[in-house]
Design brief:
The protein is α/β, with parallel strands linked by helices. It has one domain: TIM Barrel. The protein is built from 14 helices and 14 strands. The strands form four sheets. An eight-stranded parallel beta barrel has the order 1-4-5-6-7-8-11-12, surrounded by five helices. Helix 2 packs parallel to helix 4 and helix 12 runs parallel beside helix 13. The chain is globular, with a radius of gyration of 21 Å. Bound molecules: 2-(hydroxymethyl)phenyl 6-O-phosphono-beta-D-glucopyranoside (P53). The site of 2-(hydroxymethyl)phenyl 6-O-phosphono-beta-D-glucopyranoside has 18 residues, from strand 8.
C-alpha cells in the first residue's frame, strides 16, 4: 500500500445536511428548508405562485414540501446536526482523526439570502471565516463546494432556477464574493456538487418527457458556462486557487454480453458520466453530445461566446463521489434495484446495502483507472462511504465493523489504482459525521465515523460519539494508508 506523501485524507459534508440554523443571522430559505422527510422517489411537479400572483415555473420537489415553512410539518434540514453552533467541537474531532482535508459547502443563502442581491450578508461571510480559521488552527485544508443542493429558494421560485440564463450572473457574483473574501484561507474549490445528477437521475421520474431532457440539458449548459467563468475568475483572483468539477460517479456494467447491452452501457456512460466531465475538463462538447441532444430533440440556447468561455475555463482536477455500481441492459429487467437513487438492474455478483446500493470496490478501481487516462488530471474521491443503521450498545459505543469493512475495501481499491499509476491525490469520506440524508431526509441512514444523537423524528441530544470506525480511520491516516 503506497499512498503519496501529501495525500489528502479527510471527510466531507454539505451545509444543507449538517449546519441547521436555517433562519439565523440573516440566512434566506432554500428548497431543503421546506422539504420534509420522505425521499425523492415521491417527487412531483409543483407550480409556485410568484410575488405578483402569477404562476412561477414548474419545479420538482418531494411530497410534503410546500415552498414555505408550515406548522406541524417536520423539516430535518432546518436543524441538521447543528454544525452551525458546534463546528468547533466537530472540527476538533476531525483533527483528532488526523484529517488533512475537510470538504464542506457554503450555504449560498447565508451569503445572498435571496440570491439576486448586490451586497452580501456580512454575518454569513463571518460564519465561514470562523470555520476556515478553526480549520487552519488545526492544520486542516478546506475544500469548498460552492453549490451543493441548496440554492436560495427565491432563485428557484422567481427565476425557475437554472432554467434561466440570469442564474449565471448570480452564481458568478456569489462565487467571486467567496474568492475575494476568503483569499489566502481557501484555495481548493468545487463549482457544483454532482453536476451530472440533473441528467443521470431523470430516468427515475415517473414520466419523463422530451421536455424534461430539454430542460436538463439547458440547465447543464448554463451551469457549465457558470462553472467555466468562475474557474477563470478563481485563477485571476488568486493564482493559488485550484478548482475541480464534481461528478456523481456510478460505474455501470452491461448486464449481459449481448452486444446491444454493451452498446447501451457505453451510451449510458456518455449520457450519465462523461458528458459533464468532458465539457468541464476538456472545454468543449464531445462528438456524442449531438447524438444525445438529437435523441430528445434538444435545442439549446448556446452562443458562440458561451463556447469560448467553456474553452477558457477548464478545471484543474476531477473530483467525484463513489458509492456503488449499476448494471444496464436492453432485456427485460427481472430483478431491479429499488433503493433511493439506485438505478438499473440487480447485479447478481454483488451485495446490496439496506438502501439497495451495490457494494463494489472493484467498480471504484475501474472508475479511477478510466478517468485517469481520459483526462490526465489529478483525481480526488470527495465522497465515499456506507449508509447504514447504527446501534448504540449498552456500553454507549457504536461497533460499526460493516462500515470499516466497506471503507477498507474501497481504500484497498484506491491503493491498487495508485499502484497502476493513477494520479489520485485525496479521499474525503462522505458524512464523516452523521448528517441528514440527501436522498431520504433520514438521520438513520448514517455514514459517520462520529455518531450524532439525533433520530428521524428530530429527537435526541445532538451529542457526538466517536464510533469504532473513528479510531480505525485515525490509524489509517496516521499510517498513510498502511494500517488497514
Ligand atoms: P444519501 C444519489 C446517488 C449517489 C450520490 O446520499 C448521491 C445521491 C443523492 O442522494 O448524492 C451524494 O444522503 C450527495 C450527498 C449525499 C450522498 O451522496 O441519499 O453529494 O449530498 O448525502 C449520499 O444517502
Amino acid at each position: 500500500m503506497r499512498f503519496p506523501t501529501n495525500f489528502y485524507w479527510g471527510g466531507a459534508t454539505a451545509a444543507n445536511q449538517c449546519e441547521g440554523a436555517y433562519d439565523v443571522d440573516g440566512r434566506g430559505l432554500t428548497l431543503k428548508d421546506v422539504t420534509t422527510i420522505g425521499g425523492l422517489k415521491k417527487r412531483r411537479q409543483v407550480t409556485y405562485l410568484q410575488a405578483d400572483g402569477t404562476p412561477g415555473k414548474g419545479l420538482a420537489i418531494p411530497d410534503g414540501a410546500h415552498g414555505a415553512v408550515l406548522p406541524n410539518e417536520y423539516y430535518p434540514n432546518q436543524t441538521g446536526i447543528d454544525f452551525y453552533h458546534r463546528y468547533q467541537e466537530d472540527i476538533a474531532l476531525f483533527a483528532k482523526m488526523g484529517f488533512k482535508m475537510y470538504r464542506m459547502s457554503i450555504s449560498w443563502s447565508r451569503i445572498f439570502p435571496r440570491g439576486d442581491e448586490e451586497e452580501p450578508n456580512q454575518a454569513g461571510l463571518d460564519f465561514y471565516r470562523r470555520v476556515f480559521e478553526t480549520l487552519k488552527a488545526h492544520g486542516i485544508e478546506p475544500l469548498v463546494t460552492i453549490s451543493h443542493f441548496d440554492m436560495p429558494l427565491h432563485l428557484e421560485t422567481v427565476y425557475g432556477g437554472w432554467n434561466d440564463r440570469r442564474m449565471i450572473a448570480f452564481y458568478q457574483h456569489y462565487a467571486e464574493t467567496l474568492f475575494t473574501t476568503y483569499r489566502g484561507l481557501v484555495k481548493h474549490w468545487i463549482t457544483f456538487n454532482e453536476i451530472n445528477n440533473t441528467i443521470m437521475f431523470l430516468a427515475l421520474r415517473s414520466q419523463t418527457s422530451a421536455a424534461d431532457y430539454q430542460r436538463a440539458y439547458q440547465q447543464l449548459h448554463y451551469q457549465f458556462v457558470a462553472s467555466a467563468l468562475v474557474v477563470k475568475r478563481a485563477h485571476a483572483i488568486d493564482p493559488e486557487n485550484q478548482v475541480g468539477c464534481m461528478i456523481c460517479g456510478i460505474t455501470s456494467y452491461p448486464l449481459t454480453c449481448d452486444p446491444a447491452d454493451v452498446l447501451k452501457n457505453r451510451y449510458a456512460w456518455e449520457q450519465n458520466i462523461y458528458y459533464c466531465g468532458d465539457v468541464q475538463c476538456q472545454g468543449q462538447y464531445p462528438t456524442y453530445a449531438q447524438r444525445l441532444w438529437d435523441e430528445y430533440q434538444v435545442d439549446l440556447d448556446m452562443t458562440a461566446t458561451d463556447l469560448e468561455i467553456l474553452k477558457a475555463g477548464t478545471v484543474d482536477w476531477y473530483t467525484f463521489s463513489y458509492y456503488m455500481s449499476t448494471a444496464i441492459t436492453t432485456h427485460e429487467i427481472t430483478s431491479a434495484v429499488g433503493g433511493n437513487f439506485s438505478i438499473g438492474a440487480r447485479n447478481p455478483y454483488l451485495q446490496y446495502s439496506e438502501w439497495e446500493w451495490a457494494d463494489d470496490p472493484d467498480g471504484l478501481q475501474y472508475y479511477l483507472e478510466l478517468m485517469n487516462d481520459r483526462y490526465h488530471l489529478p483525481l480526488m474521491i470527495v465522497e465515499n462511504g456506507l449508509g447504514a443503521k447504527d446501534q448504540l450498545t449498552a456500553d454507549g459505543q457504536i461497533h460499526d465493523q460493516y462500515r470499516i469493512s466497506y471503507m477498507r475495501k474501497h481504500i484497498q481499491a484506491m491503493a491498487t489504482a495508485i499502484q497502476h499509476g493513477v494520479n489520485l491525490i485525496g479521499y474525503t469520506s462522505w458524512g464523516c459525521i452523521d448528517l441528514v440524508s440527501a436522498g431520504t431526509g433520514q438521520m438513520s441512514k448514517r455514514y459517520g465515523l462520529i455518531y450524532v444523537d439525533r433520530q428521524d423524528d428530530g429527537s435526541g441530544t445532538l451529542a457526538r460519539i466517536p464510533k469504532d470506525s473513528f479510531y480505525w480511520y485515525q490509524r489509517v491516516i496516521a499510517s498513510n494508508g498502511q494500517a488497514l
